[in-house]
Automatic annotation (TrEMBL):
It holds the Pfam family FecR. Residues 17-59 form the FecR N-terminal domain. Gene3D superfamilies: 2.60.120.1440, 3.55.50.30. Residues 127-220 form the FecR protein domain. This is FecR family protein. It comes from Bradyrhizobium macuxiense. GO terms for molecular function: sigma factor antagonist activity.
Length: 331
């Protein structure tokens, strides 16, 4: 027996197959308001339907994707979906050390989970990590402080020469030094690094792009044999292949997160949604492509982040459909 996506669902009951199909649909990025309404009708048929969906969602969030080219495929979990094997798998995941065993049974676990709904393997190995909506301040030493934004992971690396080294695994971190700092601080991110002695700067590593923003002093950004000096109110970006030109930035916007705020100035709605999604559980999806042209202005408190949805409804007449698990569809 096969599901709509063409993948085998042998070993699952009809209700379980439907539940897994709904998880795939609602997290595909293509869900519509009609889908949301149909899902609510399906889920409210009985307590068993609601339970089946909850279990399917939990399984997906716990295990992740199987194989490098699959977003969600319960069939590839095979026997792990059945009885005793499922309980064994759950226990192994809870104990932590058995994750590799579970991964071997279902294929390679992706390094970057789909939709970033759970921490990657490298994030779990970080020295310091923040959860969704959490921010944290650290002191590297008496002269260097670090602010971690939401969903950020860093690792402390051995000093290299006279330089203190930090690796930004994912997320966003702001580093500030005092005038007494005499040793360089190096922040490694992806295929490059930022080096500064007396400066205040921000490093953001999301997806494949790294952005380095200088808020005070100057920062040397090194990438694959090239180096640029970024000064106050300037920013540079790089990925695995290239480094961008230096551009001017507004520090009030770039550093607003350190004050517990998100500031948008004529920002396209997709970019706003992408940023808001970092600070809340679940996921917001734009299901009406006509909304993508809207430009958003505003200041929003991170601890009241869903006020963004209220403004969208009031200012643009956007309809926000809320689903279980923090999923919101904008139409």
């Amino acid at each position: 027996m096969t599901s709509k996506g063409g993948k085998s669902t042998m070993g699952l009951g009809a209700m379980e197959r439907e539940a897994h199909a709904w998880v795939r649909r609602l997290t595909s990025g293509d869900a519509t308001v009609e889908d949301a309404d149909a899902f609510q009708v399906w889920r409210e048929q009985s307590a068993a339907h609601a339970t089946a969906f909850a279990k399917a969602s939990q399984l997906w969030e716990t295990v992740g994707s199987a194989g490098h080219n699959l977003r969600y495929d319960p069939a590839s979990l095979g026997v792990l979906l059945d009885g005793e094997a499922r309980r064994v798998m759950t226990r192994r995941l809870v104990l932590g050390g058995g994750l590799a065993t579970a991964a071997a049974a279902v294929g390679a676990v992706t390094l970057r989970p789909p939709l970033e709904l759970w921490p990657s393997w490298s994030e779990l190995a970080a020295d310091y990590r923040t959860g969704t909506g959490e921010q944290r301040k650290l002191a590297l030493n008496d002269s260097v402080s670090i602010n971690l934004d939401t969903r950020t992971s860093i690792a402390l690396r051995p000093d290299h020469g006279d330089s203190s080294r930090i690796e930004l695994i994912t997320g966003q971190a702001s580093i500030a030094t005092t005038p007494q700092q005499s040793r360089p601080v190096t922040v490694i991110a992806s295929s490059g690094q930022a080096v500064a002695t007396q400066a205040s700067f921000d490093v953001r590593y999301l997806g494949a792009e790294v952005r380095v923003t200088c808020l005070g002093g100057e920062v040397r950004v090194e990438h694959q044999g090239n180096a640029r000096t970024v000064r106050e109110r300037q920013q540079i970006a790089y990925d695995e292949r290239r480094m961008s030109d230096i551009v001017a930035i507004d520090p009030a916007v770039e550093s607003a997160w350190q004050e517990g705020l998100l500031v948008f100035r004529y920002t396209p709605l997709p970019k706003v949604v992408e940023e808001v999604n970092r600070y809340r559980s679940g996921r917001i999806f734009i299901v009406n492509a006509g909304l993508n042209a809207h430009l958003i202005n505003g200041r929003f408190h991170i601890d009241r982040i869903d006020e963004v949805l209220v403004q969208l409804e009031q200012a643009f007449g956007v309809k926000a459909k809320t689903l279980p698990g923090g999923i919101v569809l904008l139409s």
